[in-house]
Amino acid sequence: MEETPAGTDGNRMSLCMFMGTTGYHSASWRLPGSNLRGGTDPAHFAAQARLAEEGGFDAVFLADSMALWSDVRERPAGVIDPSVLACAAIAATEHIGVVLTFSTSFNEPYNVARRLTSLDHLSGGRIGWNIVTSATQEAAQNFGLDTIPDHGERYRRGEEFVEVCLKLWDSWDDDAVIGDRAGWWADPARIRAIDHVGEFFSVRGPLDVPPSPQRVPLLVQAGSSPAGMALAAARADVVFTVQATIDAAAGFRAEIQDLARRSGRSTPVRLLPGLIPVVRDTDEEAEDYLAQLDSMLDLTDGLRQLERSLGWDPGSLALDDPFAPDLPVPESVAGNQTYYRVIKDMADERRHSVRDVVRRMSTSRGHRLVVGSPETVAEAMSDWVDRGAADGYIVMPAVLPDDLQVFVDEVVPLLRKSGHLPAGHDDRVLADRFRSTDLAR
After folding, report:
1. 3-state secondary structure of 53
2. Burial (CB count within 10 angstroms: exposed 0-12, middle 13-18, buried 19+), residue 269
3. Residue 331, pLDDT score
């Protein structure tokens, strides 16, 4: 089997696939044949993982929420715990990685470190952790809090949480297990307590699971606030980010890399913006297909979601009003700053209607939307990588599984032909596919 050369040099493109129920587009569930109960069907996710592996993706990505995360009138909501879905994806595949989300706000480091190590053993070194701090009032109230902690506190806790996990993963030496049938199974002197005492956690250790193939899983971070960027620069291998233009993506990537250098790191942080590819045989057919999807949106539900995102009362906005409120700077917002920034940018432009904002958030949540023929989409994807604005993408199909199938069948061969994707599978452990000693691409 052909393998990818070591490293991520040149213009090789890393691809992760965002697994979901019926697709990223808010109206995807309205299409005939959509799996309306896909969120509780492990086979639905396993099939996506197999298809993504066929398409040469490095990993699949499992989001999570600690509360019912959307208006149930607007789209399907409620998904099986990502640990369980990860098991389904691992069992269905041989090569592809699985990145799953755990919140640092509503978990404990020992449980998360233990679970990730266990899954890494199960997968043979194919596990990644998407580190999130959770930003909704509903999640806080599910865990006994009256309100969500402020942004700074959540990120201080998140940083300490990751620090504890790293200590736990290092609590066994590589040669701790001796396996001498006539003597010791393991040397207790090579397994140690971590005795961590900090602002948020007191953890004795050691971890009760021997080191897994990766020891430390691939670390992914998805925040774009200053605190999120600082955490990513210090700890993450990959940043999943919302970037709609090449200039913004290139600037963000350069800033993250600079922060990584200044933190003393010798390895880069790979930038993977979210990408929604809408692909049909021609550009015109792709535009028509997206227009068909958009025509099925219930903009009234989307309007209520926008009001909730801003913390405003229902009825505060009307679809045909101009959208130009003087919104606070993101750093003063307690909730999800990444998506708030998208909304604020549109408000600051003062050229959009409320309808425009609702449609964009329902279609892409601010992520980059590329619509066109396979050639158009492949060229658009390659352009950002070639020009240093991205190291790859989190691909978020508008409709599942149909749009993923089209992408694998029509776009992936073009990316392989251009040299952006390898022809075979990369069988190194997942983290080694992203970590490199070269910060300068």
Report:
1. helix
2. buried
3. 66
439 burial via Cβ count (<10 Å: 0-12, 13-18, 19+): middle
Question: How many helices and strands, by DSSP H and E, does the chain display?
Answer: 14, 13
16 forms beta bridges with: 59, 394
Question: Which residues share a beta bridge with 277?
Answer: 370
Q: Please, how many CA atoms are within 13 Å of residue 46, restricted to the half-sphere of its CB?
A: 12
- Closest Cα partner for 178 from 192, 191, 193? 191
The amino acid present at 17, given as its one-letter code, is M
What's the confidence (pLDDT) of residue 67?
A: 85
Q: What is the pLDDT of residue 367?
A: 93
CB 365 within 8 A of CB 224: no
pLDDT tens digits, residue range 279-332?
999 999 999 999 999 999 989 888 988 888 788 888 999 999 999 888 887 765
Q: Which residues pair with 12 in a beta bridge?
A: none
Can you say how many angstroms the Cα of residue 83 is from the centroid of all Cα atoms in its chain? 15
pLDDT of residue 430: 96
Burial of 193 (C-beta count, 10 Å sphere; 0-12/13-18/19+): exposed
Distance CA 139, CA 113 (A): 21
What is this structure's pTM? 0.91
Q: At what angle do helices 42-54 and 82-92 cross, to 10 degrees?
A: 50
